[in-house]
Inverse folding.
């Protein structure tokens, strides 16, 4: 939860999350720098500086791959949700690793250039009309700029200033950035490889990101919208205590129908913080808890517990022929609603 522009307070889970990330990053870099050089084949002998830039570059690429896999994995299996909670930390660490890669590149290739290192990087290759020989450096710089923009706008101030819709669209740039990174690797480092391991890792990573997102779209479909004001959600007996069913309302809107004990109630699926998917979260301490950053809302009125002021729309529910139905017309944010109770014969 947050007051004013303080996003989420630190807790032991965050410290563990960040510690694990840093340890895994250090292990990867150590293996690449200390153990891998003698086992990697190159057309030309590479020195420690080039090996270091490739270590940091490949590490940033794999970290970005994992970040983009977490979202669809969490949609397909709720056990991955804890890994999504602090994903912004993962992104900032990825930016730091990518900047280290750029620092090694500039220090080795442009340290003694008569022009400034960054200017030399931008002007050394301008063959934009070629495939082989294309200035892959520009692709890497584009991805780096996107990572930087996402990192500096991760603070809640920018969410409030830009509005959640614009903020979220801005952060969708991560997908063209990832495509640019794949092109950067394919047209850059892979051109100097005789060992197919790097090429295979790049291909598998790109296919994994695309495949998981496609699987999430196909397999994690919400209940379809129907005509009229009332939308069928799911069978009465199918609701799991503390969890939600997500229903499509049309025009990109979704609602989340939660079960809390013997009661069912519905709120908007979009968190007021960063439009996080409330329906993928669960009820903790009596409140629906967003899986992204922990913002909470009371189920029966869509309001955050005091002293917090966030609120989301609520929806009316009814039971009809053994099905739970939802009124697609949303109540104003923070409007109290009467829950419906499960029949006595439902466990």
């Amino acid at each position: 939860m947050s007051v004013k522009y303080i996003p989420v307070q630190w807790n032991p889970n965050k410290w563990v999350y960040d510690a694990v990330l840093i340890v895994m990053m250090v292990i990867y870099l150590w293996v690449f720098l200390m153990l891998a050089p003698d086992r990697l084949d190159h057309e030309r002998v590479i020195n420690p500086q080039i090996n270091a830039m490739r270590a940091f570059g490949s590490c940033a690429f794999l970290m970005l791959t994992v970040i983009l896999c977490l979202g669809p994995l969490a949609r397909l299996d709720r056990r991955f949700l804890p890994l999504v909670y602090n994903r912004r930390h993962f992104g900032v660490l990825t930016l730091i690793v990518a900047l280290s890669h750029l620092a090694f590149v500039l220090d080795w290739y442009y340290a003694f250039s008569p022009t400034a290192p960054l200017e030399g990087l931008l002007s050394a290759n301008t063959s934009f009309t070629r495939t082989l020989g294309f200035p892959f450096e520009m692709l890497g710089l584009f991805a780096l700029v996107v990572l930087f923009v996402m990192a500096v706008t991760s603070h809640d101030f920018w969410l409030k200033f830009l509005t959640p819709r614009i903020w979220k669209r801005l952060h969708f740039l991560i997908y063209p950035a990832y495509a640019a990174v794949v092109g950067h690797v394919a047209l850059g480092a892979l051109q100097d490889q005789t060992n197919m391991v790097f090429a295979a890792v790049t291909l598998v990573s790109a296919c994994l990101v695309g495949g998981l997102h496609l699987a999430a779209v196909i397999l994690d479909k919400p209940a379809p919208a129907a005509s009229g004001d009332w939308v069928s959600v799911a069978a009465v007996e199918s609701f799991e205590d503390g969890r939600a069913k997500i229903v499509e309302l049309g025009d990109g809107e979704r609602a989340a129908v939660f079960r809390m004990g013997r009661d069912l109630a519905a709120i908007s699926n979009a968190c007021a913080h960063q439009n996080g998917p409330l329906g993928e979260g669960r009820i903790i301490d009596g409140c629906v808890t967003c899986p992204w950053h922990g913002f909470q809302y009371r189920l029966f009125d869509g309001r955050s517990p005091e002293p917090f002021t966030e609120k989301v729309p609520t929806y009316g529910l009814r039971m009809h022929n053994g099905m739970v139905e939802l009124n697609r017309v949303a109540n104003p944010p923070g409007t109290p609603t009467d829950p419906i109770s499960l029949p006595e014969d439902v466990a």
The first strand starts at residue 230 and ends at 235. The chain has a mean pLDDT of 85. The chain has two domains: 12-219, 230-341. The chain has ten helices and eleven strands.
